[in-house]
Specification:
- The chain is mostly beta strands and about 450 residues long.
- About 10% of the residues lie in helices and about 50% in strands.
- It has a 16-stranded antiparallel beta barrel.
- The protein is globular and about 65 Å long.
Length: about 450
């Protein structure tokens, strides 16, 4: 939980304005607006707390999750820093399995400032070195589909994230004792669609690889040109977003842009600090570069967190359904995910998925047509992952975990010739994270 009653003084607003200009010209505009809204002081109010509990975009893990962050102050600004990096070796069996040494990683910084007695402003920046640490624009991941590399669809592979994973600006205002308004503008960010994205999700923090259900549930977390408005009343929060629907291009080092041509809406329910549930729906305009048509996506999820042994037991159940306006196919995904600390240093993880896939043979049109004529174009895949992480004290400012996970798959008999009868995969990894204060 975020500590309350944070107060420091002495840092000028002019100096902070100079810092924000390094983020974006949009940051200057938003900062100028919030200067005009009223006197700013440094003591955190309810609006400040609501912003600093956010995960990706305007999504939220359960409030009971002990967020692994470093919190500090720069004059009148409250700042938080988080970072995770994995060095992983993946090995997969079967004709389409692969192996690779790769690193998934991200670093996030945000700065929050109170505006008057009931408002708050926050700027956030999230970076990833995956364009450099994941070579060939992919790492092996059996049955994963989505996006492109070198002009071809990625199949049995996961793409790296962009260098700038998020760049966003929030304004929150406490309207009364029970209601809070939240406004969010992001050149790169996460619209109100889907559960908390997997890099930020409490239950996924000990797994270096993406879920194969990612592109049916939370793939919009790195969308361009996002605008979101949300209103929270007691335990309920309603949001609506506009954003650019196309997924990022192959150049992972730049900020891309496009017209706001897609929309989404999401309803949250927070019955207690241990629970967070959402349902959402969105229309995504031409998300895939090599596929025609748009997508209509519906999702639902529930998350539970309970602190234990200085960590937390965190679990997620999620469902996603995507309808293609080009193929008229409906693809469903089901995910159950959990991390359980059996002691302060030892954590057990699990991720179980059932996912419909219709792109597994998109790079082999002849085979795709043959299978489609006899068996259909959609195949339901099961992925069952179990893992373990052991934390050791090596560095003062970094948490270091040694871990491994193993995945077994189930698949229809029609595609076992391509994948093998019992394909499996394994990851061995070292995990580094910024060590939280306290």
């Amino acid at each position: 939980m975020i500590p309350r009653g944070i107060q420091e003084t002495g840092y000028s607003d002019r100096a902070m304005l100079r810092g924000l200009t390094r983020f974006s010209a949009l940051g200057v505009a938003v900062f100028s607006i919030q200067l005009a809204l009223g006197q700013m002081d440094d003591a955190m109010n309810d609006a400040s707390m609501s912003l600093m509990n956010l995960a990706s975009g305007t999504s939220e893990n359960p409030a009971a999750w002990p967020m692994p962050m470093i919190m500090t102050h720069f004059g009148n600004w409250n700042a938080i820093f988080m970072g995770v990096g994995y060095l992983s070796d993946i090995q997969q069996s079967g004709p389409r399995g692969g192996d690779k040494l790769y690193s998934t990683n991200w670093f996030m910084a945000s700065a929050e400032h109170r505006i008057g007695s009931s408002g708050a402003f926050q700027a956030e920046l999230m970076l990833s070195l995956e364009p450099a640490t994941i070579t060939d624009r992919r790492y092996p991941l059996l049955f994963q589909t989505g996006e492109t590399a070198y002009g071809s669809a990625l199949v049995d592979s996961q793409h790296p994230h962009n260098f700038i994973m998020a760049l966003g600006f929030h304004y929150a205002r406490q309207l009364n004792e029970d209601a809070t308004l939240d406004l969010y503008i992001a050149p790169v960010g996460d619209p109100a669609l889907g559960p908390v994205a997997f890099p930020h999700r409490a239950s996924a923090m000990e797994l270096p690889q993406a879920p194969i259900s990612h592109h049916l549930e939370d793939s919009t977390h790195i969308a361009d040109d996002v605008i979101t408005a949300g209103l929270r009343y007691k335990a309920v929060k309603l949001e609506a977003s506009g954003f650019h629907g196309s997924e990022p291009g192959e150049n992972r080092w730049i900020i891309q842009a496009g017209p706001i041509n897609s929309w989404s809406t999401r309803l949250w329910w927070f019955p207690t600090e241990n629970w967070a549930a959402q349902v959402s729906f969105g229309r995504i305009t031409h998300p895939e570069a090599l596929e025609p048509g748009d997508q209509a996506r519906a999702t639902a999820s529930v998350e539970y967190t309970r602190p234990m042994f200085g960590a937390s037991w965190s679990s997620t159940l999620a469902w996603g359904r995507t309808h293609s306006t080009a193929t008229f196919r409906n693809l469903n995904s089901f995910l159950a995910e959990s991390v359980l600390p059996v002691s302060r240093r030892n954590l057990v993880t699990g991720r179980f998925e059932l996912v419909d896939k219709d792109e597994l043979f998109s790079n082999d049109p002849v085979l795709e047509a043959y299978l489609g004529a006899i068996y259909g174009r959609t195949f339901r895949i099961g992925a069952y992952t179990l893992g373990y992480t052991r934390y050791v004290d090596l560095f003062r400012r970094f948490e270091t975990g040694l871990g491994a996970n193993f995945t077994a798959y189930t698949l229809p008999a029609a595609i076992k010739t391509s994948y093998g009868t019992r394909p499996v995969g394994g990851n061995v990894f070292v995990r580094f994270g910024l060590r939280p204060h306290g």
